[in-house]
Structure to design on (224 residues):
């Protein structure tokens, strides 16, 4: 989950990451930077707030669709905001996993439209899990520490921290492997226990997305 940027420290973090052309998909971050951290001028403009997205996908976004079990989630490594290391897709814990991929920090507004449905739905289905994957360009360990700790401090909900796995990787190769055309929106994927992507949608949550997932989960889990 991502919130407002309130502190100078956040401006530092996102300025560094933006310089790398990456998506610092973070939330409201509190706390201070270590004493030897770089500081920036208070004259830096504050990040613009993104208005709540409409109940539709952005122009040019692909419609939700069933994938014919031909797209495999690539093997990637990351850590959640509790520090647990993951190798995905092997460490996805559900028989089906609802995965939200965001590339830009302002895209959290889109992810947030999905979260109420994801929480309610996973509570009803023991075989379903959901994850948020902030996807950021490869960078050094210092910048990773700065981003991860900033995000962690800003999220009081332990379950939300556990469900957020930050990926630092070659974003273009990652998108190509998943057949995601661009980074201009978020993607919601339904990934099975073998790492196959069986359903995909772009952009904000809509009611017909929920109905499609309900049907897909009923079909897939009923056969297990």
């Amino acid at each position: 989950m991502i919130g407002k940027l309130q502190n100078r420290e956040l401006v530092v973090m996102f300025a560094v990451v933006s310089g790398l052309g990456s998506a610092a998909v973070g939330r409201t971050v509190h706390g201070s930077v270590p004493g030897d951290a770089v500081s920036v001028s208070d004259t830096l403009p504050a990040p613009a707030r993104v208005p709540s997205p409409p109940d539709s996908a952005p122009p040019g976004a692909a419609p939700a669709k069933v994938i014919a079990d031909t797209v495999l989630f690539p093997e990637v490594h990351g850590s959640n905001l509790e520090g647990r290391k993951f190798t995905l897709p092997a460490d996805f814990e559900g028989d089906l996993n609802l995965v939200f991929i965001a590339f830009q920090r302002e895209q959290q507004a889109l992810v947030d439209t999905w979260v109420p449905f994801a929480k309610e739905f996973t509570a009803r289905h023991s075989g379903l899990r959901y994850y948020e994957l902030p996807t950021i360009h490869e960078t050094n360990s210092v910048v990773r520490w700065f981003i991860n700790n900033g995000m962690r401090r800003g999220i009081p909900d332990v379950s939300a921290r556990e469900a957020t796995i930050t990926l630092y990787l070659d974003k273009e190769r990652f998108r190509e492997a998943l057949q995601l055309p661009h980074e201009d929106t978020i993607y919601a994927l339904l990934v099975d226990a073998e790492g196959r992507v069986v359903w995909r949608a772009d952009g904000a949550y809509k009611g017909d997305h929920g109905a499609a997932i309900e049907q897909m989960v009923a079909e897939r889990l009923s056969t297990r």
In short: The two ends are 32 Å apart (CA to CA). Confidence is low (pLDDT under 50) at residues 1-62.
